[in-house]
Amino acid sequence: MSALVELSDAHVVHKARSGGLFTRDRVYALTGADLAIAPGETVGVVGESGCGKSTLAKVLVGVERPTSGTVSFRGRDLWSMAPAERRATVGRHTGMIFQDPSTALNRRLTVRQILRDPLDVHRQGTAKERDARVRELMSLVGLPKALTDALPGQLSGGQRQRVAIARALALDPDLVIADEPTSALDVSVRAQILNLLLDLKERLGLALVFVSHDIQTVRRMSDRVITMYLGRIVEEAPAGRVTEGSRHPYTRALFSATPGLLHPIEPIPLVGPVPSATHPPSGCPFRTRCWKADGVCADTMPEFSVASAPVHRFRCHHPVEEGRPTRDLVGQAAVPEEHQEPT
């Protein structure tokens, strides 16, 4: 099956002002990302804060242009298109659900106006057809008609996120990016929103990229899971293998931090903070916190290795042994002092 959207060696480098007035540091937000998303599949993206998840999401939907590399949509380079064609392609075929609906929605517009806006911008149908589409979208996400003329401030957090989901679906997109869509919501409504997204994906045949720091939620939502660390994709695994079958030590550590209630284990300790994206470590970026790191990890960034299972690859010089339970790794995870970054 041909890819709906594909990244090839995509890099995003920002310039940030450092201590000097005229000097700017380079921030390596995304490094060498290769990723293909097929129509109708769900890809989860996990990692700690600042690992590049949101940057990857923005690059996938054409919100952010990569510094180098290519973004292809249905086989065409998105950034070689004329600006008007690119805006039409991105606007009509992709949607994005942001983390906090209270800031993502215009508080001065009613629900009707928020949902009609993308239809008006892209001139979809007649005025009567647009109003009908608004009613259809509200029904699709479980919003009562009584809220049509309500402002975002009059809605609950869960209702606001339903409006945001409906807006992302307004133009019947092929791909939807959900960037931490439940992290700003109360625990009591998170499951409702997740179940809604799963239902909509099946009913509409959407390709969905689900971004979260919660690996258990991502595992439940996804067909395969991408693990990111310091702007790099370090593992890609089928969702069914990500908990006990993942090979990268970082993926195992993430899983151990939220193992679920049925099989609790001690979390694998990661010593120290995530290194700076301005001055990343040499070699493998995870080596400063990894209990398996040695000299070769400091010298070279590992290439991708392919696991025995299909669609499973990882970048690690010393991967977790295949079939090794996460529980067995907890006692090993002590980072030697020589592998830690100097303070």
Helical segment count: 10
Q: Enumerate the strands of the largest sheet in spatial order, edge to edge or round the barrel.
A: 6-7-8-3-9-10-12-11
**Gross morphology:** globular
| Name of the level-1 CATH class of the largest domain | Alpha Beta
Q: Would you count the extended β strands for me? A: 12
pLDDT < 50 runs, ≥5 residues: 335-343
The ordered string of helix (H) and strand (E) elements is EEEHEEHEHHHHEHEHEEHHEE
Radius of gyration: 21 Å
Termini gap: 49 Å
For CATH, the homologous superfamily of the largest domain is named as P-loop containing nucleotide triphosphate hydrolases
Largest sheet: 8 strands, mixed
Helical coverage, percent range: 25-40%
Structural class: alpha/beta
At CATH's second level, what is the architecture of the largest domain? Answer: 3-Layer(aba) Sandwich
What's the CATH topology label of the largest domain? Rossmann fold
How many domain regions? 2
Report strand %: 15-25%
Kindly report the average pLDDT value: 89
Quick tags:
four-stranded antiparallel β-sheet, alpha/beta, 343 residues, 12 strands, single chain, Rossmann fold, 2 domains, disordered C terminus
